[in-house]
C-alpha cells in the first residue's frame, strides 16, 4: 500500500516527537511492505513567523494532496498576543477541522497496565484497567456558531453595555452523523453507549437527546444507550470511570470531558486522538500541547505521537494489524520497565529512563522483534 501523509510537526516539542512517530511508521512500512510518502509543511507559530499566518496556502496545498494529516503540536507564549484569528490554535486547528469536515473526534482514555500506579484515582476504582472512548462532535456547536459583540439596552432603559453572544447550534444531520460514528465504535466494543448533554437546560441538548435516542433505536437497538447530564458525567468520570465504555457528546462538552478523562489516566503524554471526516480522511495528533519549556531538550514523551500514528493506520488506511503491532510494541517497552521522564517514579531503574529519541528506538526495537523474547 502507498499512502501520502501530510506531516505538520508544528511548534515546541512537535518536531522532536514527530521525528519518533515517523521513525516508527518507517519501521512499519519496512516490516509490512508499505510506502508512506511524507510531505512536510509548517503549521502554527512557526508558520506565522515565516508566512504571516498559522495555516498558510502552502500547507493547505500539502494537505489537499494527502491521504491523511499527521499533526504534532502548536502554540506557545511567543504567539499568545496575536489577534485571535492568527493564534496557532484558532488560526490553524479550527480551520483544518472545518476545511476537511473533520466532524468526529475520537479520544481514547486508556490506562496501560504497567502505568496503573500513575493514575489519579485509587487503584481499587480502576481494577482491571480503564479503556474509554470519547466520541466528540467537532465541527458544530458553540465553537462554530456565530459570535458577535452587540450593544445591550437593559429593560429599565437606564444603561447600555457591550456583551458577547455565542450560539450553540446543532442540526439533525449533524447529530445523526456523529451518532453513526459512536454507534459503530460501540458495536466494535461492548455495545454500550453514554450520550452526554444538558437537556434539562439547553434547547440544543433537547434536540441532541431526541435524535440520539431515535437513531440508536432505529439502527442499533442492540446497543445499551444511557443519557447523562454533563455535570453528572464529569462527576462520574472523576469518581467511577469504569462504568463508561463509549461516550458521545457535543463539541464543548467533549472538549471538557475528554481532558478530564485524560487526567484520570495519569499522563497526557500517552494519549492520542483522531479527527475524522465521512471519507476516512483525518487528522491524527497527540492531545498534549507544545510544551515549550522542554522543547529541544530530548525529554518529551513521544508515545502519544506514535499512538496517533497507529490510529492513522487504523482509521484512515484500514491497517488494523499494523496499528496493533505498534500498540503491542509500546506495551512491551512499558512492561519491561522503560519510561520517559514524565512516566518515571522512584522505582524506575535509572538505566531505563529514556530520552525522546531513545523511546522511539525502543518501540522500533520491539516492532522488529515482534513475537520474540528479547529480555
* Mean model confidence by pLDDT: 91
Bin the helical content: 25-40%
Oligomeric category: single chain
| CA radius of gyration | 21 Å
Shape: globular
What is the structural class?
alpha/beta
Q: In percent terms, what proportion of residues is strand?
A: 15-25%
Low-confidence stretches: 371-375
Distance between the termini: 33 Å
Widest β-sheet, arrangement of strands: 2-1-3-12-11-4-5-10-8-9
Largest sheet: 10 strands, mixed
Number of beta strands:
14
The count of helical stretches stands at 11
Elements, N to C (H/E):
EHEHHEHEEEEHEHEHEHEEHHEEH
Report on the architecture of this protein.
The protein is α/β, with parallel strands linked by helices. Helix content is 39%, strand content 22%. It has eleven helices and 14 strands. The strands form three sheets. It has a ten-stranded mixed sheet, sandwiched between helices. Strands 6-7 form a two-stranded antiparallel sheet. Helix 1 (14-32) crosses helix 9 (303-316), helix 7 runs parallel beside helix 8 and helix 10 crosses helix 11. The two termini are 33 Å apart. Residues 371-375 have low confidence and may be disordered.
Brief synopsis:
With 375 residues, the protein is of the alpha/beta class. Helix content is 39%, strand content 22%.
Which descriptors apply to this entry?
10-stranded mixed beta sheet, globular, 22% strand, two-stranded antiparallel sheet, 375 residues, disordered C terminus, alpha/beta, 14 strands, 11 helices
List strands and helices in order, with pairings:
Layout: E1 2-10, H1 14-32, E2 35-40, H2 45-51, H3 57-64, E3 68-73, H4 88-99, E4 104-111, E5 130-137, E6 147-153, E7 160-166, H5 172-187, E8 192-197, H6 203-219, E9 224-229, H7 230-239, E10 246-249, H8 251-265, E11 272-276, E12 282-286, H9 303-316, H10 320-335, E13 339-340, E14 353-354, H11 356-368
Amino acid at each position: 500500500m502507498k499512502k501520502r501523509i501530510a506531516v505538520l510537526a508544528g511548534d515546541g516539542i512537535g518536531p522532536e516527537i514527530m521525528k519518533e512517530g515517523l521513525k516508527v511508521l518507517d519501521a512499519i512500512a519496512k516490516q509490512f511492505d508499505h510506502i508512506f510518502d511524507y510531505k512536510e509543511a509548517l503549521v502554527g507559530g512557526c508558520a506565522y513567523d515565516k508566512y504571516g499566518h498559522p495555516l498558510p496556502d502552502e500547507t493547505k496545498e500539502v494537505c489537499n494532496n494527502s491521504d491523511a494529516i499527521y499533526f504534532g503540536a502548536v502554540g506557545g507564549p511567543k504567539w499568545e498576543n496575536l489577534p485571535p484569528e492568527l493564534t496557532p490554535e484558532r488560526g490553524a486547528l479550527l480551520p483544518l477541522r472545518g476545511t476537511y469536515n473533520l466532524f468526529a473526534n475520537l479520544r481514547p482514555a486508556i490506562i496501560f497496565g504497567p502505568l496503573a500506579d500513575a493514575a489519579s484515582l485509587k487503584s481499587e476504582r480502576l481494577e482491571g484497567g480503564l479503556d474509554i472512548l470519547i466520541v466528540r462532535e467537532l465541527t458544530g456547536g458553540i465553537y462554530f456558531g456565530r459570535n458577535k459583540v452587540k450593544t445591550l439596552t437593559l429593560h429599565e432603559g437606564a444603561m447600555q453595555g457591550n456583551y458577547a453572544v455565542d450560539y450553540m447550534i446543532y442540526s439533525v444531520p449533524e447529530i445523526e452523523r456523529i451518532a453513526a460514528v459512536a454507534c459503530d465504535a460501540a458495536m466494535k466494543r461492548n455495545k454500550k453507549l453514554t450520550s452526554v448533554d444538558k437537556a434539562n437546560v439547553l434547547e440544543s441538548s433537547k434536540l441532541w437527546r431526541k435524535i440520539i435516542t431515535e437513531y440508536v433505536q432505529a439502527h442499533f437497538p442492540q446497543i445499551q444507550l444511557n443519557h447523562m447530564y454533563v455535570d453528572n458525567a464529569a462527576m462520574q468520570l472523576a469518581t467511577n470511570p469504569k462504568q463508561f465504555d463509549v461516550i458521545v457528546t457535543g463539541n464543548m462538552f467533549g472538549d471538557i470531558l475528554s481532558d478530564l478523562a485524560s487526567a484520570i489516566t495519569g499522563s497526557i503524554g500517552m494519549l492520542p486522538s483522531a479527527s475524522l471526516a465521512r471519507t476516512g480522511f483525518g487528522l491524527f495528533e497527540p492531545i498534549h500541547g507544545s510544551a515549550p519549556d522542554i522543547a529541544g531538550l530530548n525529554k518529551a514523551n513521544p508515545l502519544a505521537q506514535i499512538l496517533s500514528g497507529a490510529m492513522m493506520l487504523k482509521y484512515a488506511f484500514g491497517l488494523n494489524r499494523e496499528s496493533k503491532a505498534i500498540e503491542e510494541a509500546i506495551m512491551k517497552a512499558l512492561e519491561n520497565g522503560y519510561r520517559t521522564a514524565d512516566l518515571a517514579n522512584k522505582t524506575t531503574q535509572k538505566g531505563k529512563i529514556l530520552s525522546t529519541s531513545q523511546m522511539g528506538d525502543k518501540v522500533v526495537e520491539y516492532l522488529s522483534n515482534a513475537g520474540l523474547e528479547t529480555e
